[in-house]
Specification:
An eight-stranded antiparallel β-sheet has the order 14-13-10-6-5-18-19-20. Helix content is about 25%, strand content about 30%. The relative contact order is 0.13. The protein is globular and about 55 Å long. The chain folds into two domains: about 5-115, 3-Layer(aba) Sandwich (Rossmann fold); about 120-315, no CATH class. It has about 325 residues and is of the alpha+beta class.
Length: about 325
């Protein structure tokens, strides 16, 4: 399927502010190569220094890319990772960010998602984040509940979602596409309660039945009472005990995003919450495992220091 060139223009000129003198790197894997090549070909209209790299498909999100790709990621001003598994929470991406390169990581991005969720009012989204992000970042305690039984409290740190995660036009800015989440690392010792996921998980897709977990000091124990719950358990177990540690709390803010089973979009759906497990180095954490999985919860209630800011998925 051919993607409207207007979308590529928004990505390269509006979001990344690519200049003709800058080097532009597109990293893709075989399942996403044909889509990514459309972006690469359009970039030739803007930059004199484009480069296209196809890597081997990774086994899981958070796994490091091959050495040759990691080396290329240290040499281009502006980068776009269009892959089947996420490079967001990798050492290779973090090193590229340390060099002040501008990066979009878009794992699992489809033509449907890009055509629907990218042509948005970025300035309005920035204004929303400028209101929401300080509330989350300056909080002492956040509680999330839901009608299905989620009831968890946590303390967050290292909150992302500032302007540079929406418009990645400043040195060192990076984020996903589509954009639209305020996300934070969690203090594990202060993360306790019950999680009931009813949206989706990477590698699992849309949940047919809720997946339940009890969390004590940031480590989850899952109920494996149905096939999808067992599949998730095996994914987390594959990297050892670190796979069960809570890494992130995020709030979706993109009004055009829909719950489709592709977590890249699902975690951005306005009025959802997601909790991630595994690698938290992106949030200055210490859990260095080759896995980061976000689980989505629909229609949550969110309390910040006792004040309700969301009720059944609606900001109040």
């Amino acid at each position: 399927m051919k993607i409207d060139e207007k979308i590529f223009d928004i990505i390269l000129r509006k979001v990344l502010a690519l200049k003709s003198s800058e080097g532009f790197l597109v990293v893709a894997d075989p399942p996403k190569e044909s889509l990514a090549r459309q972006l690469f070909e359009y970039s030739n209209k803007i930059t004199q220094h484009p480069h296209f790299k196809v890597i081997k498909e990774l086994d899981r999100s958070g796994q490091e890319p091959e050495p040759g790709a990691a080396e290329l990621m240290l040499g281009y001003d502006v980068q776009f990772y269009w892959t089947s598994k996420s490079l967001s929470h990798t050492l290779a991406r973090r090193r590229a960010t340390e060099k002040r390169f501008r990066i979009i990581s878009a794992p699992m991005l489809t033509e449907d998602i890009i055509n629907r969720c990218v042509d948005i009012d970025y300035d309005a989204l920035v204004r929303l984040h400028e209101k929401l992000r300080p509330v989350i970042a300056n909080s002492k305690e956040i509680r999330v509940t839901s009608g299905l039984g989620t009831d968890i409290t946590t303390t967050v740190h290292d909150t992302h979602g500032a302007r540079d995660a929406i418009l990645m036009d400043q040195p060192g800015s990076w984020g996903n596409l589509p954009v639209g989440e305020v996300d934070s690392g969690v203090v594990r010792k202060k993360t306790n309660g019950r999680l009931v996921f009813d949206g989706s998980f990477p590698g699992i897709g849309l949940l047919k039945k809720p997946i339940k977990a009890e969390v004590f000091e940031g480590t989850a124990s899952f109920e494996t009472d149905h096939p999808q719950a067992k599949d998730l358990y095996r994914l987390l177990e594959s990297v050892g005990p670190g796979g069960f540690k809570v890494a992130e709390l995020g709030i979706g803010t993109n009004s055009k995003a829909l719950l489709t089973g592709i977590v890249l979009e699902d975690e951005k759906v306005l009025g959802t919450v997601h909790f991630a497990f595994g690698n938290d180095l992106t949030y200055n954490g210490d859990n260095d495992v080759p896995l980061h999985l976000d689980g989505v919860i629909k229609d949550p209630n969110i309390y910040v220091d006792g004040q309700k800011i969301m009720e059944k998925g609606k900001f109040i």
